[in-house]
Amino acid sequence: MTNPRRICLLPGDGIGPEITVEAVKVLDAIGALNDVTFSYDEALLGGIAIDATGSPLPDATLDAARAADAVLLAAIGGPKWDTTDPDKPRPEQGLLGIRKALGLFANLRPVKLFPALVGASSLKPEHLEGVDMLIVRELTGGIYFGERGRERDVPGAGADGGSGMRAYDTEVYAEYEIERIARIAFDAARTRRNKVHSVDKANVLESSRLWREVVHRVHDAEYSDVELVDQLVDNSAMQLVRWPAQFDVMVTGNIFGDILSDEASMLTGSLGMLASASLGDGTALYEPSHGSAPDIAGQGVANPLAMLLSVELMLRHSFEMHGAADTLSTAIENVLAEGWRTRDIADEGTPADRLVGTSEMGDLVVTQL
Ligand code: IPM
Ligand code: MG
User: 344 catalytic, yes or no?
Assistant: First the structure.
């Protein structure tokens, strides 16, 4: 028996706690099969942390995350904490804060289509053939972290032509931030189909022109064996639904990656299928790309698969348990091939006795393991 792998669990809000239970269930099963012990340390993040401490990212949570070998985050946010008041805490500040504090600059979102789910996608099956892409989203820079604020009493800014308020956010990228995310993308491409689409808005934004320059510099100096294609973000949004199979690795900035990954998730049938790994220099964090789905929270119907696919990424990137990760991926594939569906990935053809809830889905995966 090796030392326990310490996992910091951040169940968060909404459906977060429900899908976390399934992740632990599956991790325990994988541990037993591989003679590995996973130990868990639960901490508060998001709305639940605001309620308990007033802060969306309490110091104790950061300490727990730093002390762990990996962090598994479920989801944060909900209508209870929605506010436009800049002086009130928001759950999202907890998520952005922990990404920044742990230096998690690279967010990997694999868009992998399980054959059994072709019918669940909003696209026609013929458009989905060959879809297998990796979105590499820069996660600690760009407009998410640039200077922002409100200016009061600005002449001419008011709705009536008088003085009023003005608000701004700033898209900023430094060369080093672009360089390091480009390397992650090119390295990933070399293990895949050797192609990178770099997505920007270089026809308008200065930050995108620097992005393009730096990506090409890194490419020409270190990765000329990898095919590099520049694409404007509006075009990418269209190409994702026109011909998604053209993409192997897509590298892009924080906000474009946020938007395009939600769009790309529908290729897989549901936002409930998209996992993510956030990597930096220290402890990595794993989280589904979906939100806390407050509309279905507590009902036991949420799809836990993006969470379980995030566990798969954790096994690979943090624990080098590639065999166990493959087994988990196959188990999920088999459960889907047998026709089991949570309601987000069900279609008209799904028989009522194959429609399952969150915990049954977790049990089915454990049985397959
Ligand atoms: C995501 C989410 C977050 C983001 C929100 C919840 C702050 O949409 O991980 O994609 O915008 O990064
Ligand atoms: Mg998002």
Answer: no
